[in-house]
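Exercise: predict the fold of this chain.
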Amino acid sequence: MAGEDRIRPATARVSGEQPRRPAFDRSEAMPRGGSIGGVLLVALGLVAALGLVYADRARAGNYILALLAGLGSIGVLGLFALAAGLLRWSGRGPQHPLLKSVVDGAFDAIAVTDQKGRVFYANAAYLDLIGAVDANDARPIERVFIGDPDVSESIYRLLQAARERRRLQEEVRIAGRPGERGRWLRLRVRPLGEGPQEAGMTVWSIADVTRERERQENAFLELQYAIDYLDHAPAGFFSVDAKGEIVYLNATLAEWLGHDLAQIGLSPLALGDIVAGEGAALLTTRNAAPGEVKTEIIDLDLRTRTGKPVPARLYHKVAYGADGTPGPSRTLVLNRARDRDGPDRTAEVRFMRFFQHTPMAIATVDREGRIARSNARFASAFERLLGEDRSILSVVSERDRPLLEAAIAKAGEGHGDIAPVEAELARDDRWATFFVSAVDEEERDGEAAIVYALETTAQRSLELKLQQQQKMEAVGQLAGGIAHDFNNVLSAIMMATDFLLNAHRPTDPSFKDIMQIKQNANRAAALVRQLLAFSRKQTLRPQVLDLGEVLSDTGMLLKRLIGEKVTLEIIHGRDLWPVKADLSQLEQVIVNLAVNARDAMPDGGKLTVRTANVPAEESARLGHKGLPRADFVLIEVSDTGVGIPPEIIDKIFEPFFSTKEVGKGTGLGLSTVYGIVKQTGGFVYADSKPGATVFRVFLPRHQPATDNRGEEPPAVAQALSAAEQAARMVTDLTGEGTILLVEDEEGLRALNARGLASRGYTVLQASNGAEAIEVLDRHGHVDLVVSDVVMPEMDGPTLLRELRRRDPQVKIIFVSGYAEEAFAKNLPSDEQYAFLAKPFTLKQLVAAVKQTMS
């Protein structure tokens, strides 16, 4: 028999009728415990047997054996009956008639099965539901629904759960008889309990949920109808959450914007995908009080999938939570392009587009500065800075707030020609210019002024950067010019002191004074070198360096410089890329930064020098101004000192700027660092707060195969620095030959000529390049030309070209207070020459001459 034939309608259970038959309980059909009458009867039988024994003592033994045999047979048969389940011990637990009556009269059909699946108990609702003929017709669930393919899978899962002693619920649909509707049943299974009597017992319940499912289906159909109506309504509708993601978009709006709803489900849209320009900010940056429900009318352009604008009017409703967080919006969209209002509609749409898409932020305010209306640009730039009162005054900093307030007050009084207000914004270190104009009295409607705002953060930053760059360049040019003139003066002083030292013995009273002059001249030369470093006009000897080795060699020097109060820690980066720099100048950078850190820790502290590779991706993320996306090697010098005040940190690289006491510093330490790093092609940045100051030096990674930056031309390769000359000096500095000395400073030329002549050379003199050519024409061949670079009429490079035309083999040494790179670019790349930087001593000059001539 099919399942639908076994299941009777449960209308009686739903309407509240009492069960039509009693519940089936197998335990009631089982033998119960005996009564007192049975006990008395057994006792009388035993007494009679004893009386018979006493009456006939001759046969007493047989009677006793027969009695014991009878009692034993009854006991054995009783045990077999208990084992077979025909008898059971009387329950000793307390009975619960109230609970049993509740289960017996329950609306849901309930059955309890034993380990073998036999129905142990079934209430009246269960018997009525399965159409049982009598109490003995109580069938288990699987037999009730046998032959019904729509239910068999669910029954199998329920039986499996019963065997595994776990709970499970299934809902199945039972087909009705011909002419009757099918029904929905909810089947549940669970173990009865864990006690010894409940072990293996399973509780089954069946509830008729047909009406519940019908209500759900009706609600679903109504919802489908509402969604279908909303989807195809003559107006657009969408919902956007606080993150700006579209959570719903109806079919009408999707059609207007050219989107496929199926694709939207696979790839969700953001608000910026359907709103043109900065209009999205009007919908996502609004502020409201906690718990407020806010509705606004906004005119803006939507954007189709192809980028075409669609003018629309939005009725935007948002409910804010108790914490002020906006919930998903409910936004109604009217397509203004489909209106047929004539020229007025066209003009309105045209004005809306102008108002919303202008790059200038616009807002109308009342006399107190409260914003009445604003465009998309204003919402994008300033909405997050507004307070709860939505006053435009809260956008600017407290320092500049009175200026904007006064401008709005003037506009409220009808004044014209109100001066623009340049103000710093309340947060984010941003700036803006506010232009305020009055509103005509007949058009005010509570609005006192129109405020136009133009953010000038980038412009101001660029102006400040340009001013700083121009100032640094001006100071650099001044420093370079002073250094050149100083070098000439110092060269003369140092040359004169060399002559005096040669003429005086160490025992002479004036010898110490001459040495003091020489030492001060050397100090002055060091200051000049620092000026040249800042102006980036010093001579560099770049070579490929491993920063790890450089720091290891410099470590002992740094420990001596910083003293015992300061702890030095050097952290070497692994597998550092090579860099190309002047070794001595790079050491100068590290030393200057270390000394600067030491002076910031008078009571002691910690100095950390760290190196690391900075790949291009990381350099782009660092956000340092001016730092390009490229590979760098980082030198980071940090200390735990007092820090640099924010108001002066932008000035620390300027020459002669110092916060130290008079006589404690020249103000050239950090400017020297800045110049050397810049001339090397690197970048230096400083970050500071109390207790932590960090200088970061970024040097470009040297690529041997592709990077030829800093490679010296053959001519520069022959140039000898003063340190190299001193290292190569020989004991015998005398020589012979003819030298043409070209120098525009007469005093210095005379001293140089005197020094060379004292070493055995024949010296011809000229004050400039043109005069040198005349001297050469008169005298003929010379062995060496020693020439200044910057001279009137004809400079050094021009002189060299003229000399090469006359004598291609002539040798030349250029001397200058400027860096040789300043003039080397004006010479052919294969030009051969030597270079001697001013100021120099007599020994350095004659050593360079002898080295070049040999």
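Check your answer against the key: The first helix runs from residue 3 to 6.
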